[in-house]
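Budget justification, computational time. The allocation requested in the original proposal was used primarily to generate C-alpha cells for proteins on the priority list. As evidence of use, we reproduce two of the resulting records. The first is shown immediately below.
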Amino acid sequence: MRADLLTVRARPLPPLAWPHWLRWLPHTLVCLAAVLAAIATDTATPVLAFAHAALLVVALRWPAPAWWLSTAALAATTLAYPPAPNSRFYVWMVHAGVLFLLTLRVRLPSSVAAALLSTLLTVGLKLSGHAVGSWSVVAGAAALFALAVLVGAVARGRREDHARLTEQIAVTAQERARRTVLEERARIARELHDVVAHHMSLISIKADAAPYRVPDAPSELVDELASIRATALEGLAELSHLLGVLRADGDDSTTGTAPQPSLAQLDALLASVRAAGLDPTLHVEGTVRPLSPGVELSAYRIVQEALSNVLRHAPGAETSVVLTYTRDALHLRVVNAPAVLPAGPSPGSGHGLTGMRERAAMLGGDLVTGPTPDGGYEVTATLPDAPSSAPVPPVPPASGKEPHS
C-alpha cells in the first residue's frame, strides 16, 4: 500500500486496444466529465470547484497524488466552503471518479484502503457536525466509493487478462514458427540422408572392390582402401543414428526404399498437377546437364511446393515453370497469374515457404517470393552447383581375381 498510495510516480492510463480514432476515448470522456462537474458544482468559491474537478484529469497520469489532493479538496470544500445541497452530489462524484481512476492502476487492497479512508473522512465530517448532509447521504457516498472500487477492479482485471492473453498468443505464434522451422529442417535432413547415404555406400563398395581390380596390389594400398571402407561404413552408421534422432516418434516415413525424386521426374509431377486442374507450362533454357543429387532433390521439391501453393491459392491460374541451366547454378522460376476460380479453404500446414527457403539456404543459394504486378505470384530460386570434375579413367580389371558381389 505504501508503494501504491504514498508515491508521486506517474502511472499513465494506457489507451485502449481499439481502432486508432477510439483509443483515447476514455481520456476524452474523463476531461469532459471534469468540465461538466466543475460547472455543475455550486459553491462560494468556483475556483475550488474547478480545481477539484481538474483532479480527474490529473488522475489520468498521477492517480495517487490526485486521490490525496481530492481527499484534501473534499475536506476543504466541506469545512470552509460547503457547496449547496443540490450540488453536493457532484463533489462526491468527482472524488469517486478519482478513486475509480486510482483503482485502475493500483492493486485491489490499496484501492480498498483508499475507499475506506475516504468513507472514514466523510463519517468524521458528519460526526463533527459539518454540512455533509444526512446519514443517508453519507451512506450513499460510501456506496458510491465502493461502486467505484468495484467497477475499477473489474475493468483492471479484464485489462490484465487481455494483456496476458495477447502475450500468450504472441508466445504461441513464436513457438509455432520455431517448431515449423525445426520440422522442416528435420524433414529436409531425412530426405538428404538417402542422397548422402547413397554416395557413402558407393565409396564403401568401390573401396572394397578396388583391390580385386588391381593386379598384385601393394599391401599399403589394400590397407588404405580398407581404411576408406571402414570410414565410409562408420559415416553411414553415424548418418543412421542422426536420422533416428531427427525422426519423430512413431514416424516411419523414412524407412522406405523408394529413391528420392529428381528433375528427371518433373514431367510426371507436371502430369499429376494437370490432372488436378492446373495446366503449367515448362520451359528449359541452357544446356541440360546432370546436377548433384542435393540440387536435383531441392529443385524438385521447390517446384512441387510452388505448384501446390498455386493449386491451393490460385486454382485455374496460368502457370509457367522455367528452368535455366548455367555453368555453376540452376535457376528456377515458378510464376502464376491471378486466380481464375475462387480458392477454397487451404488444408496445408503453412510450412511451404519455410521449407523452400531452408532448401535454398542449405545449398548456399537464395529464394525470393512475392506478388507480381498483375496480381499473381512468383517463386524464384538460385541453387549453386559447381560442375563436376572430369571422370576418372576406368581401371582395367585384374586377371585371376574376382570382385566381391
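The second record produced under the same allocation is shown here.
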Amino acid sequence: MNKTLLAEFTAREGAQDEVARLILEYAEKVREEEGNIAFDVYTRSANPHAFWIFEVYRDEDAFQAHLKAPYGGPFNAALVPLIE
C-alpha cells in the first residue's frame, strides 16, 4: 500500500523565496528516489507564504528509505529557522 503524506507550513516574513528555493532543490532529489511516486510542491494563491508538500511513496519501506536519505537532515536544518 502506498504511503501518502501532506506537509503544510508557512514561511516567515521575508523568507518565502529562500524556502521555495530549498524545497524545489530538495524535491529534485526526492523525486529521484526509487520508491518515490510523487513529491509535489504547492503554494496557496491567497497566501503565497503557505506551502503544501504532497508526498507519495511506494510503501512504508520506501518511506523509511526516504527518511534515511543523507540530504534530509541538512534540508530540515536549513528549513526550520525559516518557517513558522
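A brief technical remark on that second record: The beta strands are 3-10, 36-44, 47-57.
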